[in-house]
Structures are given as C-alpha cells and as structure tokens.
Amino acid sequence: MNKIQKLGLAVLTTTVFAFGHGSVTPQAVDTKGLAPVGAEWLEKNPYVGNEKAREIGEHGYTENCARCHGLEAVSGGIAPDLRYLDPGIEGDEWFMEKIRTGAVRNGNVYMPPFEGVLNQEAMWAIRTYLLSLHQDQ
User: Fold this and answer.
1) Which GO terms describe its molecular function (predicted)?
2) Which residues have C-beta within 8 Å of that of residue 57, sequence separation ≥ 6?
3) pTM value?
4) What's the pLDDT at 76?
C-alpha cells in the first residue's frame, strides 16, 4: 500500500469513527398538531396517551436521543436506559430537568442541554414516546 492509499484509509477511518453516531447537533422537532402547553414549564406530562404526541416524540427521540440512549431507548450502557424511568410525576420531573439542562459531571458534558433548541411540547412528546416503551425493572 502506498502513502496516498494509507493516508486515504486513515482519513476514511477517522471520518467513520467521528460521524459513526451521526450529527450531535440537537435538531428542532416539528410539533404541529399538538396542543400548545403555554410558557410556564409544566411539572406533569400533558400528553400522556396522546398518539400524535407519541409519533412526534418518536421522531424527536430518534433525531436527538437515540445516538446515546439507543434505538427504541434500548441503551447500550453509554447513557441511562430511558425505558426504566418512573412513569409518574417523579419520572416527568427527572426527565424534564435532564433534557432542559443536560448533564455535566466533573466538568465533562455527558448530555447537552436542549432548552432553547426543543420547545416544551417537543420535550413532552419525547417523554410520551418513552412512556410507550416503559418497562419495569
């Protein structure tokens, strides 16, 4: 293998590893079809059982969360398995705090904050999708 081939292989390999999980830039979610929830941050999910919210949430989750939390929320161990979140208000509160503010430990960003990128409707729609996948531990 000549030097140019080796360089090309190195660039290809680096690109595959760098972008293997897709873009890590948070993506906005289209929430048309959901009733607006207002400017005040809610403590409880207003879309429980709402099929449209589940569909929108599935798309939002796939675009923004699956790269770390796994497809269909089946975590590979990198991030918490969100299927096991408490299905009640405790789970709602934990979910909203993490999705809004992200997670930082010892100065390292483990999850970016989504407040300002996703609106409250999108966040609750993602929570609704996760509820549809809920499993007891």
Assistant:
1) electron transfer activity; heme binding; metal ion binding
2) 47, 122, 124, 125, 126, 127, 128, 129, 130
3) 0.82
4) 85
